Amino acid sequence: MSEINYPLLGSYVPMSKSTDYLVGAVKIAESEDANCFMFYTGAPQNTKRVPVSELEVPEFRTDIANSDINLNTVAIHAPYVVNLGNSLKAHTFDFGVQFLSQELQRASEIGVSLVVLHPGSAVGATVQQGLDQLVKGLDDIIATKPKGIKICLETMAGKGTELGVNFQELAYVIKNVKDSSDLGVCMDTCHVFDSGYDIKNNWDGVKEEFNKEIGFDKLWCMHINDSKNGLDSGSDRHANIGYGQIGFDALCKIVWDEQFKNVPKYLETPLVEGVAPYKYEIKMLRDKKFTDFVKTIEESL
């Protein structure tokens, strides 16, 4: 990945028929002045998917090539409802393996190499059983996935029986799959804060722990979000940048961290009165200066 003046920073962008599928996704990212972006291939709450042939892939690749966005910095987020950690319901687990295998194939056909995945939940079993089931599912998926596709396990906040709520759990999965060469991590700032990592006051210490348990070479993308709740709350409620408990200064420090400058970072913050805030958040993080953009949006309506 080539050196750039600004850190890699973009957002989740919609990708649907109403926004002209992949062509529209690129336009939205460019309108935000983003240099990377993430999208879902369908609604995140279900597994209904439009055939790749309808997503305008050739036009998408042409538009990306003519933009300031490198295709290697674009990510697909798998839907939330897939659960590879379910060791009690064979149908749920088998469906997850089948769907995610298809999702990785879709990513390959589109030309996107990064796929972000929630590790899942133990749902009635122990955490260890859930982690072992996740390893089993990933082994099945990795064995048949297209070449060049990288899976990024997301750090989770600790709601219910979620897996991947600390670096040790993710390290266990990475160390125990048969082939971990294409398995890495997506660090979500809201999630790690909510799960007990004090990135507000001790980012350097959290970095050291991540490197010790997993390794910096496995941090392949990040979600940049503020948190509506406090440290170790286990709540997973995203806040707009500078309007939550982590705060603008801490998040700006993370975004500009030289060690992770070329790691793609995606905003997943809430809409403000139905308006996407990402162009405002990207600008102020690049400028390293907080502005009350929520007020700006509200006054423009």
From TrEMBL:
User: How are cofactors bound according to the entry's free-text note?
Assistant: Binds 3 Zn(2+) ions.
The GO biological-process annotations, alphabetized, read as: base-excision repair
Leader peptide range in chain numbering: none
Entry-linked InterPro entries: AP_endonuc_2 (IPR001719), AP_endonuc_F2_Zn_BS (IPR018246), Xyl_isomerase-like_sf (IPR036237), Xyl_isomerase-like_TIM-brl (IPR013022)
Task: Name the positions where Zn(2+) 3 binds.
Answer: 191, 236, 238
Q: Which metal ions or organic cofactors does this protein require, according to UniProt?
A: Zn(2+)
Q: Give the top-rank taxon of the lineage listed in the UniProt record for this protein.
A: Bacteria
Chain positions recorded as Zn(2+) 1 binding sites = 77, 118, 154
- Record field: catalytic activity: Endonucleolytic cleavage to 5'-phosphooligonucleotide end-products
Do the record's keywords include DNA repair? yes
Its Enzyme Commission number(s) read 3.1.21.2
Q: Name one GO molecular function term.
A: deoxyribonuclease IV (phage-T4-induced) activity
List membrane-spanning regions.
none
Q: Read off the Pfam families from this record.
A: AP_endonuc_2
Keyword terms, alphabetized: DNA damage, DNA repair, Endonuclease, Hydrolase, Metal-binding, Nuclease, Zinc
Cross-referenced PANTHER family:
APURINIC-APYRIMIDINIC ENDONUCLEASE, ENDONUCLEASE IV ENDODEOXYRIBONUCLEASE IV
Please describe what this protein does. Endonuclease IV plays a role in DNA repair. It cleaves phosphodiester bonds at apurinic or apyrimidinic (AP) sites, generating a 3'-hydroxyl group and a 5'-terminal sugar phosphate.
The UniProt family comment states: Belongs to the AP endonuclease 2 family.
Q: What is this protein called?
A: Probable endonuclease 4
Record organism: Mesoplasma lactucae ATCC 49193
